[in-house]
Structure formats: C-alpha cells, structure tokens
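#help-structures
NK: newbie question, is this the right format to request a structure? protein is Fe2OG dioxygenase domain-containing protein
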Amino acid sequence: MSKPPTPHRVRLSFSFSERRGATANTPAGCATLLLNHLRPSPHSTAMAETPLHHSTDPFTDGEHNEHDPAVPASDAATCGADGGGILVVDFDVLVNGAADRRARAIRDLGRACEDWGFFMVVNHGVPEELKEATMETCRELFSLPEEEKVEYLEAGPMDPVRIGTGFFSVVDGVRYWRDYLKMFAHPELHCPANPPKLRDVAAEYSAKKRALMLVLARAISESLGLDGGRIPEAMGLESCFQILVANHYPPCSGPGGAGMGLPAHSDHGFLTLLFQNGVDGLQVERGGRWRLAKPLPGAFFVIAGDQLEIVSNGRYKGALHRAVVGGERARMSVVSMISPCLDAVVAPVLELVPDGRGLEFRGVRYRDYMEHQQSNKLYGKAALDIARVKRDIAA
C-alpha cells in the first residue's frame, strides 16, 4: 500500500482557552469544535470521508479500517482486565522469581511481543503516589494560562520541550483532540519552569521508569534466545534516550460525541510504558481488529516500538495503536518511552540472522529515524519503510 501524499501545510491559531470555552461541553458546541478541528485536509486519509456521528458502526464486525474513523471506544472489541487476551507480566517474578517461574515469565513476555507487541506489567514497584503526583503536575501544566506556555507552543519535532495540540499540526494539516507535553528526560532532563514541582516529580518518575524498562529490555533479549545484555548493548540503552509525554484529551459531551485523539501509529522508540487516569480510550490493532485496552489496577501498559521490530529482525512487532475520545470526562495518559542512544545505528542483531539471509531491515541511526517519524504525518507504520530491506520481487 502506497503512502498518501503529504497534506498541504496549514497553521491553526486558536488558543487552548478558546477550544475549552463554554460551548465545548454542549452538544452543539462539541460537534462544531470537532468538525472544525478534527476534519483533515483534502489530502489526508486519517479520517477521510468519515462522519463524526455514525448511523452505522464501522467496527461492528471487528474489522480494521486503516482510515481511522472517529469512533467511540465502545465500537472496538474490549480486552484486558476481563481476561480478553492481553498478556500480563509479573515484574517481581522477572527480578526475584525462582528459575522455573522466571523462565515461564520470559516465555510469556516473548509471546506477548510476538503476538501483540503489547502487554501489561504488574508488581513493578513504581509507587502509586508517584504516578498520581506525575499526573497531577501535568494536569496543572495544562491548566496554566497560555502565556506561561507560549515559548514551547511553536517548538519543532526535535526540540527538547514541546507543548501543543495535535501531533504536529504543521505537518499533519489537522488538529487531533489532544493537548500534549513532550519533554526529553534522559540523558538530560528538559522541563518547563512551571509548575515548579514538575521538574522534581518528572526526574523521579523518569528514573523509576527507566530502571524498569532496562530490566524488561534484558528479559526481552533472553526471550529471543540471546544473552540478557545483547539487545541493550546493541542499542546503547545504558546511555539511552528517554522521552516523557503527558496527553490530555478534553471531554466532549453530547449524544454520539466522539473523535480521534491520536491516529493509528507505532512508536519510534524501543519500549513505551503508559498509564491513564481511569478513562479508557487506548486501542490496539491485532489480527485486523481494533481492541480497546482496559488495564488491571495499578498496571502499566507496555507498547513495543519500531526499534524493537528492527533489532529483532521483525520477529517482534511494533504495536499499531491509537487513542479515541468521547464522553464527558477528560482522559489523561502519561507515557515514558525508552529508546536507543541517539547516535546508535540500530540493525538486526546478527544472531537472529545467522546466515545473512532473510534480513528484513538495514541499519539506521536512531536520531535520523526519530526525526523522520516526528517530521512526517502519522500513517500507521510507514516510518519503518526507511529501514526495510527492499527486495527485488522479480528475482
């Protein structure tokens, strides 16, 4: 499938406060705002020709629709806390479990990465109080007057702190129903000055998540039949690059109110950990169907990224996922992504391609890959094309 043409560039200048005006929570106001700010450009396929209020449900049969229609989360199959298929990894077993239990947990982890590119981790040791403090300080940031955030509102994809609406609207040509904060957290933490406590909270939270993901990286390496340090070494994870992201999806009340918070995409990094404020909206694609992911209490969602797909030579897949919005409650999520060292050249480890045949990806410097993905319109897993080995079909 070919990638659609890049949409024409537009700049939308309405403010955060304008979008959250008194009309935003009325049915008519909600519909107007969604139509104005979620409608794609003529060249965009993110929600092309898809009405925001459906007389028929495009997902009643569970089939994947790559045009990302703005549909309520209830239109997707549900999986997670009710035993609907998402595998759960007990982090404490990975660290402290007896040999047989740990071996079983690593096999389960490998199966999750191979079948889903997505799983939950429990007993991870990150205090609930720290998670709540992180969520609350990010909520305070979103509520600040725009003049206190203005220096970050025009930041580009590779700037260390970025606040905005939509993925990167100058590239997308469309505003998604999302406010976000993105900040580089490691090897150096970059953070807005306000709210004042954000820096300390973000530093502690990022350090906890980084340690957790480095343990998962070693376990993933073992699940591939490799030494635990092989994958971390191949990507320079000891001097890893880490991003902290907070997403705020404003409420939208009224019958049928729904929209796309973030379109279908895979993450550019290695692993992503996510928790949310109790409002569902994360959907994961598996087997041609969109599944609404419901977490276990206290669990983190773990999402495999593109660099894991590359380094494993396609054995493990970066998960295709999206965020849908609707209803009267705002949804918030906090995301921490661990990635290779910016200057690491990520390629399949040779042990997984012993004879040099069947090589699915070529080596790409992570900095270049990230800049490519962040500077282009989100379109599924299209960013991986720059790393895929091109094969001569005729041959």
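mod (FA): yep, format's fine, and the tokens are attached above. Residues 198-223 form the longest helix (26 residues).
NK: thank you!
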